[in-house]
Amino acid sequence: MTISTTTILNSYSGNGSTTAFAYTFPINTTSEITVIERSATGTETVKSEGTGSTNYGIADSGASGGTITMVTAPASGTTLLIRRNTDFTQETDYVANDPFPAETHEDALDKLQMQNQELEEELNRSIKLSRTNSMTSTEFTTSATDRASKILAFDSSGELSVTQELGTFKGTDATTTTAAYVQRDIIKSTTTAQLNNVYICVADAVVGDALTDTDHFALLVDAVSAATSATTATTKATAAASSATAAASSASTASTQASNASSSATAAASSATSAAASFDSFDDRYLGAKSSDPSTDNDGASLLTGALYFNSSDNTMYNYTGSAWASLKPTSSEQTNIDALAASAVIADMALLATTDVIADMALLATTDVIADMNTLATSDIVSDLNTLATSDIVSDLNTLATSDIVSDINTLATSDIVSDLNTLATSDIVSNLNTVADNIAGVNSFAERYRVGSSDPSSSLNAGDLAFNSTSNVVKFYNGSAWVEISAVTSSTITGQTAETSIADDDLILVSDTSASGALKKMTKANFVTGLGSASSIADTDADTKIQVEESSDEDKLRFDTGGSERAVMDSSGFALTTNGGSFIHHNTIANDTTLANQNMLLVGSVGITGTLTIGSNSTVVVI
Description:
Layout: E1 9-13, E2 20-23, E3 33-38, E4 44-47, E5 56-60, E6 66-70, E7 79-84, H1 102-124, H2 144-147, E8 151-154, E9 160-163, E10 168-173, E11 185-189, E12 198-201, E13 217-221, H3 223-249, H4 251-256, H5 258-285, E14 286-290, E15 308-311, E16 316-320, E17 325-327, H6 332-341, H7 344-353, H8 356-365, H9 368-377, H10 380-389, H11 392-401, H12 404-413, H13 416-425, H14 428-439, H15 441-450, E18 451-454, E19 467-470, E20 475-479, E21 484-487, E22 510-514, E23 520-524, H16 526-531, E24 538-540, E25 547-550, E26 559-563, E27 566-572, E28 575-578, E29 590-591, E30 595-597, E31 601-604, E32 609-610, E33 614-616, E34 621-624
Parallel strand pairs: 10-11, 14-15, 18-19, 29-32, 30-33, 31-34
Antiparallel strand pairs: 1-7, 2-6, 3-4, 3-7, 5-6, 8-9, 11-12, 12-13, 15-16, 16-17, 19-20, 20-21, 22-23, 24-25, 25-26, 26-27, 27-28
């Protein structure tokens, strides 16, 4: 046959149920098959052909391979390896002048090829030099006794050697390193907390790493503990000397206490036995440093559940669960959480939370009342409302409202009187009137700009037609575009300093002296003046629906103002009153007797005096400027 495959082994994972496993390479005889079962812990067991529970049967199919059938199915977690293991013998005998059959010669060549393939597979699993590397000799002559408990290393020339050296001593350094180190470097600490401790680098470390970082360094010599023990020993020695002195002075007492001492000796012996038992118990539970998982305790007995040991290979503590060793370290997910908590930002946040003020605040928040309140605030409706309040615009408005001045103003507004007044202002009628004022705010603002009260004449924001009351001279003035002009009352029936006009224009003011009224002056428009003089009781337009009417009834002493056929205002000795909704009084600074407003609005300007009671009825509003 020909050898057309380089495969010499097949590997399978056990599942506790499968028993038949194929091999895909040719063999010379079934005895040249090796079956190995590897346990989950790495233990390898060579199986034998047979019918026992640990054996297997074989069915060879020739050049294509065959089938191995295990009597007991390999368990889950185990690995089954089927490997060809050709005998290293040569059984073909060539006799001179005998026939040279091709089949016999081919079988011999096939066996040689099989042996070569198996040797190559073993060589591939060996430690060897690369093709471009070199070494003078791969042999060493150190005897088994001399190399016991030592390590295989390379000398200064790169040749194999058996040495006792663990690494290279790099001198001293602080616990926070000032130099970089590579694996097997040995360093002695100069920092007080780790003074004279000796460490070995187990993973390359950079400048600024810590000798106490177990990911990069392992402690070889605990000098700090040794020094502490030495100090303790010195202290104990001093105490022992003092005790010796005390013992000498107590010799006479000792003789009288001999029987007590005998009893104490018995107790001491018992204590010693107990101490020995306690140490043995401790020794069975802490096994010390081991390079791999131990299978028995230090006395060779079965392991106790909860036993501990330190693995010097991976620098990790392990505990025995009763069936296996488990490392005492966080899981990868737990370590991820620990690393997350170790982030500088989280540490900074925890430092902020750890201040006494914050702790005090959290203690206040932890009361049952506050927790109950927070549970109330946590309802979906309130959370939704808080999210609404958390918008940047509302937060900005709340920050504005939170200033001391506005808080003070709000506290002022929160008094019972003002709250009552606000409730009054919130009635539908008053709100309607306020809306009316708001709709005409431009006019209100315009009035505030047009009429001002002060101790001196205004000097800024001046427009022709502006009015001002000078409280120093107690006169009203108007601004003619360049100067303030006093508006004087005419009290005399004789007008002097006036020039007669030969023509009259619209809107001219005409002063007429009424001799029958003792020279009293009356104001008339051009139209009224033309229509009639003397006995005229009103100034009216052509259709008489817009007019100023004097004394609608006999001696009522009132002046009435009509527009569009409706009376809009009445002026009498009490002031000027509007008779339609939405109007306003101007410069109504005196309210005499008891006054009741009904469907009226009133604007009071300046210092206002009220005699009696002012009642604001329905659909009425009073504004004071």
